[in-house]
Design brief:
The complex is a heterodimer. By secondary structure, chain A is α/β, with parallel strands linked by helices. Chain A has helices at residues 8-15, 127-146, 177-183, 255-263, 269-276, 330-340, 357-361, 368-371, 382-393, 426-437, 468-476, 511-528, 550-569; strands at residues 23-32, 37-48, 52-63, 71-75, 170-173, 190-198, 204-212, 215-218, 233-239, 287-295, 302-311, 348-354, 375-378, 398-402, 442-446, 460-463, 485-491, 497-503, 575-583, 589-594. By secondary structure, chain B is an alpha+beta fold. The chains are: A alpha/beta, B alpha+beta.
């Protein structure tokens, strides 16, 4: 269906470009049905001191509902830029019939910007202003690109973009400052590595182990990513000395280009593959990892290895007949390999992500002092299920979870587990959920009630059972001799209160102490809720259930985390504290305060 | 010189026929043609039908708010000018009109006007001048000349259909003078198409813009020349070396001013031979007084257009164009942020304003 006319804002946007120096409209708005966007074609002429005047053509795409929606500007195929520069998507050619190349410069906020021109901020919502803002930035970008000044020292370093790929796989590594120390002795070398494919679509290729001469490098993954050295999948790694790009910031697109770029760094890629090829013969489309050191900031010292993945063509099998004149030996097989590792072989780049804990921690996690502790969580009910996941997401790796309950439908209203888990042991089902929550978690679920045998190397015990029977069992349990902190969290009526009980050493814990300290709070809670009776779990059931909402569970779980953090970070922690939700006169939520007797 | 091409683009789309007008026109002329070809008393004498008029030439501007768009339908008949009089020809169509368009038609000198609620149709009955021409028109049906589309929608029309375009003029029964007169609507279409491509596609837009200028200033201008005669005058004077509608507009007006200075001084009206029928003067009915007054208006407009064209400040230029072309010409909207250029990088990037994360 033909789109009739762009909206008035789109027309206005384009009119307001007319007085940008050097701008000229080539083709007026047209609708692209594939992108579902309107686009104009225009040229920009810059007068650079060195090169003189030069003109480049571009296509700007806007959303039908402009000034809302994203704005993207692509180089035109005709008289557009052909290389890839910094702050730009990989600038690939496109199929016939498409007028643009793929290399859209990154012009928008936040951060991934050329925004250091101290110019005005993006005028969201302004029809005359927004497109104009992009095109003025584009002019700046072109100018800086032409002067090789796109990033001044001190700017965040940006790895080169990979060419668009049809592969949906993501290659996962875990590089940080520690592994960088290891790699710093191995620039220019190559070897094999192991990876495991995980994910719902089996599309995450997670590297677990590098063979580097005799000393290996093993990533510290959690339970989700097994090491699998026996039957894991193999690939080849090559560690370059610097970013393997040519002409500005462009990754090689053919095998030949890659060889040349690496040869310039005194690395013989073909030789590296040849040496290791025999280990890869059973792998379908083996992975080649090309690594290089990167700094955090432009001009700074390198501090991390970045790996890029390439899917190679499947190498010849051991049985394949070598070309005439060659024997069935390594040389003969390599001759066969060269038929697929052609110079003009188009490289299939794989997207990579660095999942190191150091990278994850940039988004903020708990201190290593806590995350390195081994947790024992007793009770996998509402509070336990949320708390255990929060701890894992915050970086706690070693978690043992004990609960003999089986998940029931009624639990779903305030438990982190879901419909598929009904009928399963809460502890084992949570083990799976927590290990999936983050690749560093090593959670273990024990589908039994405490007391039961728990691991010896425990640093901290958290009671989330709300059960006096368990507290009594804790007192009587034969805990290992080492220091073990103890926390017990429980809720008041209607989940309006959280009771926190802490003991610096579990060896000093007594059930008597607990009841002595907590009973005045319990009494106060009952006084504040006269006539309170536990409702039945359901119609036709004698068993009582305590009322309370999931949103309150998550609030209290968050506070429990902060109490644990506070406890671990200071010495004298013994005691009880209570938090309560306060409400306005009409009963609506007003805040949370520490309660007093 | 300020470039205001996109202002012109938006102005032109706001004065061109809207999709709804075009749908109305199509419905009107297709219904009329289908009825003609199905009508027992007529279907045997109709050889071909095709469209003409400003709609077909893509020079139509939007009708006034309470007016309808109009389209001309040419009907080529096998009635011979030797055996039948113009009055008799029209008579043959009356039963048809009575049946389908009762109380909605009016017989004019050279055509039959049909006024429907949504569209005005002009039915032009013609006769092919010879048997050979008759055959050619017949074979040309279903070909490009009978195409409904505007010429700007058809690429290389001239070349593709060149055989058909070589047809001779048709004969029109003129009731007022009671004789057959020559007409060549196809040549007008062909001429316009060719002119438009020689003017890099700007010509039809120049015509529309000047027609619109004429409408905006109708109070200060004489009623005539307008519509086709005005278009013809523009066509005769519009230079081909134009890079934009703004240039075409200005240069055309300036050419008119230069070319007819003497004519006006002599209190005369120029002779403008029709395309395809050169003995016809398109300006035959224009009076010298009207032309002189019209000429003054053009002269004044040419001055402002030149000023607008040469102005380097876009805002000023846009305001001048608005004084010529009215409020459909968009208001100035640029200059929102810093003017062009760039500031070289100084400091590393720092996050700005509210950095929210999700």
């Amino acid at each position: 269906m033909e789109k009739d006319q762009p909206n008035d804002n789109i027309l206005l946007a384009r009119r307001s470009l007319e007085d940008i120096d050097g701008y000229e409209l080539i083709d007026d708005w047209q609708f692209d049905h594939k992108k579902n966007k309107w686009y104009i074609k225009f040229s920009l002429t810059l007068d650079a001191q060195i090169e003189g005047k030069f003109t480049t053509n571009w296509l700007a795409f806007v959303h039908e509902k402009y000034p809302a929606g994203k704005i993207k500007i692509y180089p035109s195929k005709e008289n557009g830029i052909e290389h890839t520069y910094l702050h730009q998507e990989f600038n690939q050619n496109t199929v016939d019939g498409i007028q643009w190349r793929t290399g859209a410069p990154c012009l928008e906020e936040p951060l991934k910007v050329v925004g250091r021109d101290n110019s005005v901020e993006e005028p969201f919502g302004s029809a005359p202003g927004r497109l104009r803002w992009y095109i003025e930035r584009l002019m700046t970008w072109i100018h800086l690109a032409s002067q090789n000044m796109l990033i001044p020292p001190g700017d965040p370093f940006e790895v080169p973009p990979i060419p668009a790929t049809k592969l949906s796989n993501i290659l996962v590594t875990a590089e940080d400052s520690k592994t960088f120390g290891f790699w710093s002795h191995h620039f220019g070398k190559s070897g094999i590595f192991y990876f495991t494919s995980i994910g719902k679509k089996n599309n995450l290729d997670v590297v677990s182990f590098f063979k580097v001469g005799k000393e290996p490098l093993k990533y510290e993954w959690g339970e989700k990513i097994p090491l699998n050295l026996g039957n894991g999948i193999l690939g080849i790694w090559v560690l370059a000395n610097e970013v393997p790009v040519f002409s500005q910031w462009e990754l090689p697109q053919t095998f030949d280009q890659l060889k040349n770029v690496l040869r310039a760094q005194n690395i013989d890629l073909a030789e590296s593959i040849k040496t290791l090829a025999d280990t890869l013969r059973s792998s379908k489309n083996p992975l080649l990892l090309v690594g290089f050191p990167i700094p955090e900031f432009v001009g700074g010292k390198s501090c991390q290895i970045h790996w890029l993945g390439i899917r190679l063509p499947t190498l010849s099998s051991n049985e394949a007949k070598p070309p005439n004149g060659f024997r069935t030996n390594q040389i003969g097989r390599w001759r066969n390999d060269l038929k697929v590792l052609r110079n003009d072989l188009s490289l299939r780049w794989v997207e990579t992500e660095n999942w190191s804990l150091e990278e994850f921690s940039r988004r903020s996690m708990l201190d290593e002092q806590i995350t390195s502790m081994a947790f024992l969580i007793l009770g996998a009910g509402a509070l336990g299920s949320v708390l255990v996941e929060q701890l894992a997401k915050l970086g706690v790796k070693n978690i043992t979870l004990v609960d003999g309950d089986v998940l029931k439908g009624g639990n779903l209203v305030r438990h982190s587990l879901g419909v598929d888990d009904v009928g399963e042991g809460k502890a084992s089902a949570l083990q799976e959920r927590v290990n999936n929550a983050i690749p560093y978690a090593s959670a273990k679920g024990i589908n039994e009630y405490f007391p039961t045998k728990v691991p010896e190397d425990i640093d901290i015990v958290i009671d989330c059972t709300g059960s006096d029977e368990v507290l009594s069992a804790i007192e009587n349990y034969n805990w290992p001799e080492n220091d073990i902190q103890f926390y017990s969290f429980s809720f008041g009526i209607n989940l309006q209160k959280l009771f926190v009980y802490k003991k610096g050493s579990i060896h000093d814990f007594s059930y008597q102490d607990f009841t002595t300290q907590l009973s005045p709070w319990g009494e106060k809670d009952y006084v504040e809720h006269p006539g309170f009776k536990l409702p039945k779990e359901g119609i036709g059931c004698w068993h009582p259930a305590f009322p309370g909402r999931f949103d309150d569970v998550t609030i209290w779980s968050g506070i429990a985390v902060k109490e644990i953090e506070k406890g671990v970070n200071c010495d004298a922690i013994d005691g009880v504290s209570t938090y309560k939700i306060i409400s306005d006169d009409d009963g609506s939520f007003s805040g949370i305060i520490k309660d007093s007797l | 010189m300020a470039i205001v091409n996109s202002y012109f683009n938006d102005f032109l789309s706001s004065i061109s026929l809207q999709q709804s007008h075009i749908e109305d026109l199509k419905l009107g002329h297709i219904t009329l043609r289908d009825r003609l070809l199905a009508y027992d008393g007529l279907k045997d004498i109709i050889v071909a039908t095709f469209l003409q008029g400003s709609y077909r030439r893509a020079t139509a501007v939007r009708p006034h708010a309470d007016n309808r768009a109009d389209v001309d339908l040419i009907v080529v008949t096998n009635l011979s000018s030797d055996t039948i009089t113009p009055v008799e020809v029209v008579k043959k169509f009356i039963p048809f009109l009575e049946k389908h368009y009762k109380d909605k038609y009016q017989i004019n000198g050279r055509s039959i006007a049909i006024e429907l609620s949504y569209v005005d149709l002009d039915l032009v009955i013609t006769s092919a001048p010879s048997e050979v021409e008759l055959t050619s028109y017949k074979s040309a049906e279903n070909n490009l000349i009978t195409d409904d589309r505007m010429i700007t929608e058809i690429e290389n029309l001239v070349y593709k259909a060149s055989a058909e375009w070589k047809l001779s003029p048709l004969l029109i029964p003129d009731r007022d003078v009671r004789e057959w007169t020559r007409t060549h609507p196809l040549e007008q279409i062909r001429w316009t198409q060719e002119k438009n491509s020689r003017c890099s596609g700007h010509y039809v837009n120049v015509v529309k813009a000047i027609k619109w200028w004429h409408r905006i200033h109708s109070e200060e201008l004489p009623k005539y020349p307008k519509s086709y005669p005005l278009e013809h005058l523009i066509g005769t004077n519009c230079p081909e070396m134009i890079d934009s509608v703004a240039e075409g507009f200005t240069f055309s007006l300036e050419a008119i001013v230069a070319n007819y200075q003497d004519t006006v001084a002599r209190q005369e009206v120029p002779f403008l031979p029709d395309h395809g029928v050169p003995e016809h003067d398109v300006f035959k009915r224009i009076s010298a007084t009207d032309f002189s007054q019209f000429y003054s208006g053009i002269k004044e407009a040419a001055k402002i257009a030149r000023e607008a064209l040469d102005e380097t400040d876009i805002e000023k230029s846009v305001n001048l164009w608005r004084s010529l072309l009215g409020t459909r010409f968009p208001e100035y909207s640029g200059g929102s942020s810093n003017k062009g250029g760039f500031i070289p990088p100084s400091n590393p990037t720092t996050p700005q304003r509210t950095q929210r994360f999700a």
